Every structure is written in structure tokens, then in C-alpha cells.
Predict the 3D structure of the following.
Amino acid sequence: MKKIGFLSFGHWSSSPGSSARSASDALLQSIDLAVAAEEMGADGAYFRVHHFARQLGSPFPLLAAVGARTSRIEIGTAVIDMRYENPLYMAEDAGAADLISGGRLQLGISRGSPEQVIDGWRYFGYQPQEGQTDADMARGHAQVLLEVLRGEGFAQPNPRPMFPNPPGLLRLEPHSQGLRERIWWGAASQRTATWAAELGLNLQSSTLINNESDKPFHLQQAEQIQAFRDAWHTAGHEREPRVSVSRSIFALVDDRDRAYFGRQNQDTDQIGFIDATTQAIFGRTYAAEPDVLIQQLKEDEAIAAADTLLLTVPSQLGVDYNAHVIDSILTHVAPALSWR
């Protein structure tokens, strides 16, 4: 059994054929797709966060709105770039969104990926300390967030407050109990997966990871997941961790599917440099008739190792078509693989 959700980048474009032509379209359609996904039995609605791009950039208003319109589905991010975040303000926003949703927030964070601008976090007022990298800064922001999400007081109260204070040091409000255990780290390497496990974070692994061997993508990703689980066990955490992987999977069940994705089945992974020093491997796209797709997915060891699968959706093709993409996997593929 697996939890199956969707992952949307929330692209919008004024180009012909795009159903999401503005930021308003992208946001409102994201809410509608989450509602539709819940109605068809999907388990999660997740959103990617990118800055300086025509994509979803400010997740918490969207997460809160989805939480208010739904009642069961998990609501999350994959991922928020912590280089851009004020962790205390983020804790307040996350607490509010989690309370609105009734404790369904699954917050994926990471150090981020190459962006549309050079060092975009500098425009947000952040800069690594001397001797640190932007990745160090992101991990530092994440650790502050984790600490304040524990809900313990740390701020000295005013002796003459405007309103009465509870006794002792003050914490950030609103606080949502249990949210600390629903924070995930988007890891690109075994090293960062191990670091996440040591901190008690759940693991998110996407279709793009560091190329650390000559093995296929799904085997490298499965090894990353095993390294995470080993480190979790060594750390002695009491609860069981969660692990998600994302995939581009399209079941070709009608003429629309064949027109859009009939030629996109990639038999091999892709390898390239995402910056001057980092070689990455990008997982294949699965697009085939359901019976073929089922056989292909049986061989994906990373999906087998994860408890949660996030289906990337082509947001510019509109709510109805994306709901169809999700439903096709839930109906024609998941039962045959014992995911349902």
C-alpha cells in the first residue's frame, strides 16, 4: 500500500494551449485540483516552490486555502528553498496553515536548486556567514525552524505587556502540535539523506538527484533511501520515518493521452550538470499503455522502497486533464501493483 498524491510546479504561461495563463489561474486551479484529487481518492496535494519564476512562489496562502477546501487529503510542499526563508516567520505561517487544515500539513524543505536568478536569496536579505556556503545557510535556517516548531518558550516576555502572558518564556504562535514530525527534507545525495535522518526529518527524493555512481537512477535512489533508513535506525528515533519519491507517470488510456505523451516514454535516464560542479541524474518519464506501465513500474526499486509516490502533473493542461492523469493511475495502475 502506498500513499499517492500529485506534485505541481504551478507553471503559468500566456502561450497558446495553456490553460493556466496567469498567476491567478495557477493558484485557483491548484486549489481546484486538490479538491478533485481528494474526491477521487488520492492521498496528497503537493506544490513546488520557485522564486523569480512564473510558478508557485508563496506556498502558505495556497496551503491554507487548500486546507480550508478539503477535509482528508495531505497538503504539502516539495520543496521550499530554505535559503529564502525567515524560519521564525515561516513557523508562524506553517502553524496557521496546519491548524486550518486540521493537522494535514506535510512540509517539504531543502537547500533548493538552481534558480532563475543569480543568488536570489540575497534579494530577500539573506547572506551566508563568512566561511559558509548557501547550502550551509539553508541547513542553518532549517535547524532554527525545527527548534521553534517544538513549541517551547524562548523569548523574554515584556513585564508590562499589552495583553496578559502565560507564565515563563514565550513561544511563537500559533503553535500546531505534531507539525515538527511532519517536516521532510528534499535530499539530492546520500550525505544529505543521512543528515536528514539524524535530525528526525522525513525524506523526499525527486526525479533529480546527484549522480553518485554508474548505476541507473532508480537504483541510486533506492540506495539513498536505504542510507536514510540506516541512519534513522542508528539515531534511535522512536517513530517510523516516511519516504516519498516523485515520478512523471502517464497512463495512455485515451487519444488525449497519446497525443500529449505517446512519444515521451524515455527508456533511459538523463545525466548532466546542474551547476559548474554538480553532475546530476534525471529519472526517466513513464508513458505507456497501462499493462506496459505496470510491468515497467514493477522494476523501479526506489518506488518500491518508498511509502509515498508523488505524480508530477502538467499544470498548464488544466484541472480536468490533470484530474484524469491522477485518476488513470489510481484506477488502471495502482491496484495491479498492490498500491491500492
Remarks:
- The first strand starts at residue 3 and ends at 8.
